[in-house]
Amino acid sequence: MLVRMVWLSWVLSCGLVGTGAEEDESYDHHKYYKSLVRQSEDFWVDLTHLNKTEVGLVRENAALADSYRQAATVKLSFQFPFYGHYMRNLTIATGGFLFTGDEVHSWLAATHYIAPLMANFDLRKEGAKIIYADNGTAFIVEWNNVYLNDVSNSSISGPFSFQTIIHHNGDIIFAYKTIALNISLIEDKFHPVKVGLSDAYTIDKSAFYARRIT
């Protein structure tokens, strides 16, 4: 599994810095996957243009429109490998991540996620939306012009625009077009702030007349 993180725009000391012409990349190898960080425009998918050339391919889910802390499950047209098992269903969350678990619950951000930028995003802001497309070999999800719900550490709440692209061979791309402020300044009091992947072994059991997943 290869994870690519691609920056089209990035932040330095809370100020937005434009993209440069030169590419800058580094590799990081792990036991189960390897990651590549690159400054480039190569991997960003223009879903607005794609929707004009492939009518009906780009979609919005009504459950996610104008919403806060919501999630919607989407069935892919293909399977892709994720930590040794094959996934067909993914749950898109307004909080900047995909949930990969089998059962939707109240703490999706804890485990089983693919997170280009997990944070307390609110889609009730004007112009904020989540769009996605499935072309048979890749699944693209874009959080477009989303804003943070809480901005206690900064007066800047957005916008943020970023994508995750899931390929049928297991490659995962995180692409960032607009990052309004340094990620270290994003408040995590009411919602986790994470970038990366997570898988977990869970046990569904009943104890003392209460159902628990651990």
TrEMBL record:
Subcellular location(s) of the protein: Membrane
The UniProt keywords, alphabetically, are: Membrane, Signal, Transmembrane, Transmembrane helix
Membrane topology qualifier: Single-pass type I membrane protein
**Signal peptide location in the record?**
1-21
Q: Name one GO cellular component term.
A: membrane
What name appears for this protein in its UniProt entry? Tumor endothelial marker 7like [Tribolium castaneum]
